[in-house]
Structure formats: structure tokens, C-alpha cells
Specification:
Elements: H1 8-19, E1 25-26, H2 29-40, H3 63-69, E2 73-81, E3 96-107, E4 113-121, H4 129-136, E5 142-144, E6 164-166, H5 167-178, H6 192-198, E7 206-212, H7 214-228, E8 237-243, H8 251-260, E9 281-284, H9 295-298, H10 311-329, E10 340-343, H11 364-380, E11 412-413, H12 416-450
Parallel strand pairs: 4-7, 7-8, 9-10
Antiparallel strand pairs: 1-11, 2-3, 3-4, 5-6
Helix pairs in contact: 4-5, 5-7, 10-12, 11-12
């Protein structure tokens, strides 16, 4: 069989993107899980049949997917969770998702060919207010890593010595470890830890944790937790490939991760591609999300796409930046990136849906459309459309092939513009709810300074 066209880094990144598919739909939890499982059957072998979609037997991956990704079997999940809002009403979206695949032979650039498992974690669902508020933006409180118990933890005061992670990251890891593979999925009725404990891999087997956006923070944190918990001792190589992630913790946590996960295993050779480093968070320098949460990086986000020429847009962006800096600073911990590699972004003037984007942004929609393109499209590549030429991505040249869209009954697809408008609503709501508090705190601090 011919080798896949994508190298191991690109394959893993592509599989992280597939975990995000559930974010493109609305529906109840079981429907969304079935939809994600059905979508994965195009890319992987042995995905259990989704009977409501008239599948009778485990899947055989589509040849076009195999030509790019290689041969992978689904071995756990997919599992996802639909949370409830503050009123106890289901959110109608997938708030977190996770699956595991295995290949018998992955050729690692500059390294050996190994049997490999990949743990793919979903990114922030743009339609999930729970993701935004409870996981992404929950950084004003921190959790001591040395005493962290994913099933029972509480924020604590920062002591300046121990490693700490944000409350949002701590919450996300607890959710992932609590997910159970459904009865109709692979390795049913098991958690990820139970599944890993059931394996008896060849000593040379590799395991890779990957994720984009929110999962760019969760994937290294989950890998470190499982490594320190000795859940990964059976694997000869443990790697992480996070992309576009916000910062999960402060300096001591970053140093701890870096010491446990060097950029290359011993004896492997460094490659020339800027995206080709393991255990390194790769990020587009025009992507707002990985600018969170170091204060010095947050100070760039209001004008990252140029100074907004309209007063209202500039005021909203400055308020957003001010709020983010306030939340980042509140605990006293200084958020610090794990080892990372920036990738050179390129401003775009239209979205994937050919919606015009004004640069500098004249409206919050312009800003969010540019953010969306930089946060997703610039990593995956943007196909040519109309008069717009193809744009090669920073990791994938062009997006993975997609099957014809077929929806599980009860599931509806979400358009890019619908996602953007939802994000705008959520950010404006967040600014409105926090602005008075921040201004009051500023007034108190100014009064103290005057005295």
C-alpha cells in the first residue's frame, strides 16, 4: 500500500479537526454523538454502525481519506457531552467530545515507524456558551496542580511556588476523564482511563494527544495528568500535538510540562517544517485565541487586525481586551505558554463563505470573521472559491476531503455565519456583564493610588 500523502504531524492535526465535527451541528446529545460517529465512519475503519443511518456493519474508510490520513481504526468512542445551562436546560450542542484511533504503523518524520494510538479532543464549540464561560474564559481563579483531583477540586490562592492551572482547564480535564464511550460506540461503557488500562501494547507503541483551540490547552494538560498518574507507562513514546491553544497554566506548570515532554524523543531528528515539532503548541501569530492568557499577549488583541476606524468597534474591542487582561491578572498567577512555535499568518479579505471582511475591522463582525478564518482556515487551508484563489494552510495545505452531508434525524447543520453571529452575541454579553465590574475595580484602584 502507498504511504499517505500527509506526514504524521499533519495526520494527527487532521484527526484533531475531525473531533470538532460535532461542533457544526445542533441537536440532543445522543443525536450529536451518532452524527459524529457517522461522520468518522468516512475516515476510519471499524467504526461501529450507526443503525439509524442504515449502516449494517463496521466501517471501511473511504479511499480518498485513506490516501491522505492512512489506515486507522476507531478503538474508543466517540463520546461527547451535552451540558445544561444555568436553568437546567440542555444546551442543544456538543460541549466536549473525544475519540481514540489506532494505526499499526505510523512513519514518524526523523524517527521510527511505530504502532500508534491517537487521542483526539474537540475544540471549543463556537455555539457552546458553556465552553466559553466555564472552560475558555474561566481563568480568574486557579487550581493547584500538585493536589488536583479531576473529580473533586476547588480553586485556591496562588502561592507563587507550585504549578497551577486555570479553573477552566481543570474543569475541562474533569469532563474529559468523566466521559464514557456509549453502548453503540467503540469500547462501550468504558472511560478513557479504563480503556487505556485494558490495553497491552507492544513496548514500542506510541500514544499521541492532540487538539485545537480549547483542546490545545486540554490535550497537553490531559497528557501530563495521565503520565503523572502512570496511566501511560505501557507506552514507549508519549507525544502531544496541540494547536491554537490558550494557555492552560502559569510558569511553574509550563516548566513542568516542558520537562516531561521534550520537543523530540531521544534519537529522533528535528525536521525543517515550522509545524514539525512534537510536544509544542503551534499557533498562527494572527490568531487571537492563543494570545490568551499571558497579559503581554492579550494587550495585542484589540488591534491585531489593525486599529478599528469606527468608535463603537474600537470601544468594544478595547473593552474585550481590558476584560481579558483583568481576568488573567485576577489570581496573581502569570499565565505562561508551554513550549511553542509561532506560524506566520496572513490577513484574509473574505471568509470561507465568501463573505467580505474589511481590514482594519469596521465592525465586530469583521473582527470575528477574520478571527474565524485565522483560527481555523489558516491552519487547514482555504479552497479557491469564485474569484478568491486557494490559500495554503499553515499545517494542512488544504482541508481533508469531506463526505456528502447526511444528517442524523433531529440534527441540523450550523453555518459559518450562524456560528460567527452566535460568538458575537456571546462576547457582547460577556463584555456587558463584566464591564461595570471592571470599571468599579479600576475606580477603587485609582482611589487607592491617589491616597
Amino acid at each position: 500500500m502507498t504511504n499517505p500523502s500527509l506526514d504524521a504531524y499533519q495526520q494527527v492535526f487532521g484527526m484533531a479537526g475531525l473531533a470538532n465535527r460535532a461542533g457544526g451541528y445542533n441537536g440532543f446529545g445522543i443525536q450529536l454523538q451518532q452524527q459524529l460517529q457517522y461522520d468518522l465512519s468516512y475516515y476510519f475503519n471499524n467504526v461501529p454502525p450507526v443503525k439509524i443511518m442504515d449502516q449494517k456493519t463496521p466501517s471501511t474508510a473511504n479511499p480518498s481519506a485513506v490516501s491522505e490520513l492512512g489506515n486507522w481504526d476507531l478503538v474508543w468512542g466517540p463520546a461527547l457531552i451535552e451540558e445544561k445551562n444555568e436553568k437546567g436546560v440542555p444546551t442543544g450542542v456538543a460541549d466536549n467530545a473525544l475519540y481514540v484511533v489506532k494505526s499499526n504503523a505510523v512513519a514518524f518524520p526523523g524517527g521510527p515507524t511505530l504502532p500508534t494510538y491517537v487521542v483526539a479532543i474537540a475544540a471549543t464549540n463556537p455555539s457552546s456558551l458553556y465552553d466559553w464561560e466555564t472552560e475558555d474564559f474561566s481563568v480568574s481563579e486557579v487550581v493547584n496542580w500538585t493536589t488536583y483531583n479531576p473529580s473533586n477540586f476547588a480553586p485556591s490562592s496562588y502561592n507563587g511556588t507550585d504549578p497551577y492551572i486555570s479553573k477552566g482547564t481543570a474543569t475541562g480535564i474533569g469532563i474529559l476523564l468523566g466521559l464514557t464511550s456509549p453502548q453503540s460506540a467503540a469500547s462501550p461503557n468504558t472511560t478513557l482511563q479504563q480503556f487505556l488500562a485494558s490495553l497491552n501494547p507492544d513496548p514500542n507503541t506510541a500514544i499521541i494527544f492532540c487538539g485545537h483551540s480549547l483542546a490545545g490547552a486540554l490535550s497537553p494538560t490531559l497528557a501530563l495528568y495521565l503520565k503523572e498518574n502512570k496511566d501511560l507507562d505501557a507506552f514507549g513514546v508519549t507525544l502531544v500535538y496541540p494547536t491554537a491553544g490558550p494557555t492552560p497554566g502559569e510558569a511553574a506548570f509550563a516548566n513542568l510540562f516542558n520537562s516531561k515532554f521534550p520537543p523530540l524523543p531521544s534519537g529522533w531528528q528535528q525536521q525543517t517544517g515550522t509545524y514539525q515539532s512534537w510536544n509544542t503548541m503551534h499557533w498562527n501569530d494572527l490568531d487571537v485565541v492563543p494570545h490568551a492568557w499571558p497579559v503581554s499577549e492579550l494587550a495585542k488583541i484589540a488591534t491585531i487586525y489593525g486599529q478599528a476606524p469606527t468608535y463603537m468597534t474600537a470601544a468594544l474591542l478595547n473593552a474585550l481586551q481590558k476584560m481579558a487582561i483583568s481576568d488573567s491578572s485576577n489570581s496573581g498567577a502569570s499565565y505562561t505558554r508551554i513550549q511553542n512555535q509561532s506560524l506566520p499568518g496572513q490577513l484574509q479579505h473574505s471568509s470561507a463563505s465568501s463573505i467580505s471582511i474589511k481590514t482594519p475591522p469596521e465592525s465586530l463582525q469583521d473582527y470575528m470573521l477574520q478571527l474565524s478564518v485565522q483560527h481555523v482556515g489558516m491552519y487547514n487551508g482555504i479552497p479557491a472559491e469564485g474569484s478568491n484563489p486557494q490559500v495554503n494552510g499553515l499545517i494542512l495545505t488544504q482541508p481533508l476531503p469531506k463526505p456528502d452531508l447526511k444528517l442524523v434525524p433531529g440534527v441540523t447543520a450550523v453555518t459559518e455565519l450562524e456560528m460567527i453571529l452566535k460568538i458575537i452575541d456571546q462576547i457582547i454579553g460577556w463584555i456587558s456583564s463584566r464591564y461595570v465590574l471592571v470599571e468599579k475595580e479600576n475606580a477603587t484602584q485609582n482611589a487607592s493610588a491617589d491616597k
